[in-house]
Here is the input.
Amino acid sequence: MLRLVMPEAKTLRYSIEAISNLIDEGSFKISENGIYMRAMDPSRIAYIELQLSRDSFETIEVDEEVSVGLNLGELKKRFSAAKPSDYVEISMDKGFFVIRFKGKGTTTFKLPIIEIEEEDVPVPNLTFRANAKLRSSALKEGVKKVGIVSDTIKFILTREGVSMVGESDLGEVEFLLERGDEDLISLEVEEEAKASYTLSYIEDVVKATAASEVVSISLNTDHPLRMEFFISGDAGRMIFLLAPRIEQ
Amino acid sequence: MLSEIEAEIRNCKKCDLWKEKRNYVPGEGNPKAKLFLVGEAPGREEDLRGRPFVGSAGKYLTQLIERKLGLRREDVFITNLLKCRPPRNRDPTEEEIKACSPYLIRQLDEVRPEVILCLGRHSARFLFNEMGMNFSKISRERGKPRRVRKWGKEVWLLATYHPAAALYHPELREEIETDFQVLGNILRERKTLMDFFQFGFCT
Here is the structure.
């Protein structure tokens, strides 16, 4: 028996959209505690982890934990067909992952479950000395503005605020959230930090901001970036790590 | 020495392709290249000139190397799985690959690159298998860099479509260029998350 119900499709829709841009196939662990998945992109530049606790669901009925391998590109297409406000029900039927949307009528998709080679994914164990919590919409705005000028984004966390900076032959751009800005919820900086990252990875993952109101950003100089998107309050989270871009 | 391998190739009669070819095409480039590109086999223009990737597909490949990677053609090493042109550019046979591929392996052993780019399904299948990995089809395997242990170091192996495919199927251009973008990221960003993680594995 496996049946999960969410009152709105948007959480899964936008989370899957963000993940599917980084990895092609994913293995979801589904249990009475919720849905969990973690993976690294093939180039080992990015790591992503999705946790949707049982509080994310209206109903959760799972006899035993199962691992469900799915093609994420195909899963994304199915969820793109749903309206964010659609009611969504998930079940399994003879090798198929069954997704039912109820909105205008009832749509039932059956997606083949695929076998995925279990890969050793290291458990990230990083500590950060600069942390900021901001509204996800502000992160999205900063990423968008840096993208006008550059394909690289530099994050700078100081005691005064959070900067996102882009530089290229086309010029420079800085998006600044100063301490006290209502979009900057908290800022804890033991040691100021700055590091550059490939923008395209971040552009992919900020698509999750549609399912998240708050994101925390953690940084050490020239070390991986950690972003944690809080989904539906504290019921779910998506953790994203990205290797820094260090020019040789 | 690469020059010794090249000399052997120029006298090779291990399969029948030598009979119909005009020139052997051993490959060329920087003997200390970080990036090693492997195509399928010489085409008409390559056969005439004795150099790899000098026809229309080669022109496109050179553009990709320069524009997407910011490198010059002479910075990289370019060769093919087969060193002689198969008649009418037909697919290489298993026998031909078996006979010719030891040259490629030896060239790789000499150059010891950090990144190997397979251009097309034939070189990708051969090199994936050679590195102990399964290969299903190019549309599924392309654009996903793999870390392999080789020559006492970590090496990247990546596959994309053969540049000639883009000439006949322009819709593949975008995918090839995306793969070169990934390749550019690898070449520029030598650090991956694995360089920072405390290793504790779980599946």
